[in-house]
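TICKET: design request
STATUS: open
ATTACHED STRUCTURE:
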């Protein structure tokens, strides 16, 4: 164990922001170990996606977190690809280049306890956030390319609108970025942020949920240009997990490369740890 500096709270030699679940950063710098869901009692299949079959993608802990990154990943549509492909900037999670096919992940495996403050967040205990930096080579191929929070208890679903509680930013076919939210299984509320995403660009989508359950949205560290007229407010006690949902709009490649994922709890001013 290293010797702490004056005023530094440590455990096992790591600074407290990383250590006490305030901030966790994952870089997609090495391929994951992919585990068949049959090991955990599910169907023993590769990730064919037709029944939203889940596989575990396990990344080792890196410099940004004491925890390894675990993704409960599933594919939409029949896939010939069982995991992400390696890219120089991260991991390419596009899957097969086929219309109405794609992938999604949730950080917390369905039905598991999860780790509070890392992949599982409870409204009313503290404010929390998640942000994902990734690139899209051709935005015209994206029906949906969404990131944010959804209710942790739900299993993988083939349609984004079928989840009961969601707060996310979604990049669609013309590169427009929309806020999409669902509260208590009501209809999806969609707001055009008037922000855009160009071919080959890399951006960071961020969603924050306050202790009171109010969602807000950021692009590359700033508030989106146009926010919803009334931000969705989730119920106290709801438990959320970060997720991503991608679907092709045509049978062509668009290269969705994940570069950096960050999760954690907000400070008293409603901001992530510096």
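STATUS: resolved
RESOLUTION: sequence designed for all positions
ATTACHED SEQUENCE:
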């Amino acid at each position: 164990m290293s010797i702490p500096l004056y005023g530094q709270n440590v455990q096992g030699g790591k600074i407290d922001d990383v250590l006490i679940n305030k901030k966790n950063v994952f870089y997609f710098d090495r391929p994951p170990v992919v585990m068949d869901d049959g090991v955990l009692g599910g169907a023993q299949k590769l990730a064919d996606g037709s029944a939203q079959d889940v596989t575990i993608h396990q990344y080792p802990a890196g410099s940004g977190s004491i925890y390894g990154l675990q993704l409960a990943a599933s594919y939409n549509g029949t896939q010939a690809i069982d995991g992400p492909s390696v890219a120089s900037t991260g991991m390419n999670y596009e899957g097969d280049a086929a219309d109405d096919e794609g992938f999604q992940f949730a950080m917390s495996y369905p039905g598991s306890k999860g780790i509070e403050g890392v992949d599982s967040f409870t409204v009313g205990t503290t404010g929390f956030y998640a942000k994902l930096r990734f690139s899209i080579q051709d935005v015209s191929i994206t029906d949906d390319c969404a990131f944010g929070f959804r209710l942790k208890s739900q299993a993988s679903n083939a349609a984004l609108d079928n989840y009961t509680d969601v707060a996310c930013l979604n990049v669609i076919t013309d590169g427009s970025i929309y806020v999409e939210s669902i509260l208590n299984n009501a209809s999806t509320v969609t707001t055009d942020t008037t922000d855009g995403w160009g071919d080959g660009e890399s951006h960071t989508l961020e969603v924050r949920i306050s202790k009171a359950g109010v969602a807000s949205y950021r692009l590359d560290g700033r508030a989106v240009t146009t926010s919803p007229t009334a931000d969705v407010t989730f119920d106290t006690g709801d438990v959320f997990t970060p997720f991503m949902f991608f679907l092709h709009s045509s049978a062509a490649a668009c290269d969705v490369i994940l570069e950096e994922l960050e999760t954690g709890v907000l400070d008293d001013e409603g901001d992530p740890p510096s």
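CLOSING REMARK: Residues 15-265 form a domain with the Jelly Rolls fold (CATH 2.60.120.200). The longest helix spans residues 16-19.
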